[in-house]
Amino acid sequence: MAAPRAKGTLAKLGRHVAFALAVVALSFAPSSARADDDEDDTLIYLRLQGGVAYANLLSLDDDEFLPEVASTSGTGPFIGGAAGFRFLVFTLGLQYNHASHGDFRVNDADLEFAVHIPIPVVQPFVRLAFGYAWITDDFQGVSNDANIRGLRAAIGAGIDIRVHRNFSFGAGVDVGVVSLSREGVDVAGATSFDFTEEGRAVGLQVRGQAHLTVHI
Q: Which of 1, 18, 97 is nearest to 53 (CA)?
C-alpha cells in the first residue's frame, strides 16, 4: 500500500510543480511581450545627425558646368535632421542636411525610406533617399542667380542602438549621386569660360554620420 501512496504523492507533487512553473512562465511572458510592444509601438521618430561628407560634383559627368580651375570637390562637416513615422520595421520620413565642402556648400532635402532588422538592442538598417539638392551661396564667382540645383539619390546602411524605449543612437554611411544644373548668367570679368550658357554636372557624395534619435 505504501508504494501506491508514494506514487500518488509524487504525481500530486509533479502536478504542483508543473502548475508553479506554468504560473512563473506566464508571469514573465507578458512582461517580455510588453517590452517588445513598448519598443514597437512608437510611431514617430526625430533624428539629429552629423559627421563628415565628401563630394566630387563632376566625378560622373561634366557638361560646361564650371571652369576647370574651379574647385568642385572637397571634404568637410555636415549636420542635419530628420523626422518621420515608423510602422513595424519600416520608417518613412523627411530629412534635411547641410554639408560644407570647403569652397562650396551643398544642401539637400530628401524623402527617406528605411528597413530595420528587428534584432534586440542593436538594429542594423538599410535606407534609400531621394530628393532635392541645391547650393545656396555664391559658388566660384557665380551668383545665386544661376540657380545651381538639381536632384539627389542615395543608398545607405548602418546600425541603431536602442538604449531606451524613447532613445537610440547609432552610425551609418550613405553614398549619393547628385545631379546639378546651372542656369546661364553674366559673370563680371569672366573671359575664358562662357557662364551665359547653361551647365550640368553629375557627381558623388559620401557621408559618414553619427545620429541620435528620439522615438515617440
A: 97
Q: For the segment 120-171, what is each residue's pLDDT rounded down to a tens digit? A: 889 999 999 999 999 877 666 675 667 889 999 999 999 999 998 899 999 9
Phi, psi values for residue 64, rounded to 5°: 55, 40
